[in-house]
């Protein structure tokens, strides 16, 4: 009976040490944040428009200095004569291993215009700077988005988890 208790104790100790150890990521090393939440504020210079959005990104691929993420969001846009809701959907490529990154993206921007009672979809291109330390939680983005005939500078703050 004592041998059974010793055997069970050893199995529980071994199992608990593997449960509480740090998780290894697929690419080696310790756990890495793969989810990103951030809010962004966009402002149109020429047409005096603006937008406020909340976005979610999920890392879908990472190899060396390239990180690909899928992105979606929900936000509000406005200008002098109209306002509505917008939903971006796309893929981002984040380059470089340091805290400073180049970010390029492509996708679609669906929006509804409440003043004119219409919905439209545009191809969305974005490019810019992203500050996020490797393994860090804080995200800062200074980007520009091009859709339709608009080029909109965007500032973002958020966190990864």
SSE order:
HEEEEEEEE
Q: What fraction, in percent, of the residue positions are helical?
A: 10-25%
Low-confidence stretches: 16-29
Roughly how many Å apart are the termini? 47 Å
Shape: elongated
Would you count the extended β strands for me?
A: 8
Number of helices: 1
Write the SSE topology:
Layout: H1 2-20, E1 35-43, E2 50-63, E3 66-78, E4 83-95, E5 100-113, E6 118-131, E7 138-147, E8 150-160
Antiparallel strand pairs: 1-2, 1-8, 2-3, 3-4, 4-5, 5-6, 6-7, 7-8
Structure description:
The protein has 161 residues and is mainly beta. It has a single domain, classed as Porin (Beta Barrel). It has one helix at 2-20, and strands spanning 35-43, 50-63, 66-78, 83-95, 100-113, 118-131, 138-147, 150-160. The chain has an 8-stranded antiparallel β-barrel with strand order 1-2-3-4-5-6-7-8. The model is unreliable at 16-29 (pLDDT under 50).
């Amino acid at each position: 009976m004592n041998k059974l208790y010793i055997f069970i104790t050893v199995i529980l100790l071994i199992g608990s040490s593997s449960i509480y150890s740090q998780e290894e990521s697929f690419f080696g090393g310790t756990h890495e944040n793969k989810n990103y939440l951030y809010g962004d504020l966009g402002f149109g210079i020429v047409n005096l428009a603006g937008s406020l959005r909340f976005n979610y990104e999920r890392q879908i691929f990472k190899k060396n200095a390239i990180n690909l993420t899928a992105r979606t969001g929900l936000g509000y846009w406005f200008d002098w004569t109209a306002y509505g809701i917008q939903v971006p959907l796309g893929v981002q490529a984040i380059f470089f291993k340091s805290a400073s990154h180049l970010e390029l993206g492509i996708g679609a921007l669906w929006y509804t215009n409440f003043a004119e009672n219409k919905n439209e979809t545009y191809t969305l291109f974005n490019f810019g700077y992203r500050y996020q330390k490797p393994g860090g939680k804080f995200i800062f983005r200074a980007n520009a988005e091009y859709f339709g005939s608009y080029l909109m500078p965007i500032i973002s703050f958020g966190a990864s988890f």
